[in-house]
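Suppose you are handed a protein chain with no further information: no name, no annotation, nothing but its sequence. What can you learn? This example shows the usual starting point.
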Amino acid sequence: MVDDEPLIRIALGQILIAGGLEVVGEAADATDAIELVLDLRPDVVLVEIRLPGSSGVHAIERLGLLAPVSRILVLTRSEENRVVEAILAGASGYILKTAPPKAIIAAVTATAAGESVVSPQIAGKLLQRIREREIPITANAQDAANAIRAALTERELAIFTKLASGKNNQAIARELSLSTNTIANHIASILAKLNLENRVQAAVQAVRSGIS
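A reasonable first move is to predict its three-dimensional structure. Written in structure tokens, the prediction is:
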């Protein structure tokens, strides 16, 4: 857990332990957090965006390079632009500090399992930010798009494209007249075929390759 407020760390620790999870370390700033993660190699790192000195976003970028196996879940008080920056930096998702204990435990568990804890609103903002950067469709991007089309079935490609709009499984299921379980199975297949960890990575790949 990385948070500069001791009371927050105590409360979160109690919540996580009560939920059957193990808290292996705590840090109050980005520098200590990076050193601690490199030493302990935890499954999940809970990181507050606003930290003294170096920001939480900077810590996420560094951890993504130095400890890519440890997945990062952002702690925040509100859905703000910094959340989008954190996800672009490599975070798997975010959880509000005001969330109920069960939701916090579920978010940490899902992150450990490789899932992305991102609301449709944040997903939409994330993908819009990527589009606003006007990333050109280069030869490499075109090659990536061709490889993706070759790897996926027609149904998987349709679902892959819809991921780029930030839609959740229920919305995709309604649009394609399929069950949510079928959509979930297709997404698992897409991630495996493209060697991606979560749906956020898939959405970003769809945008950057020009498929979406």
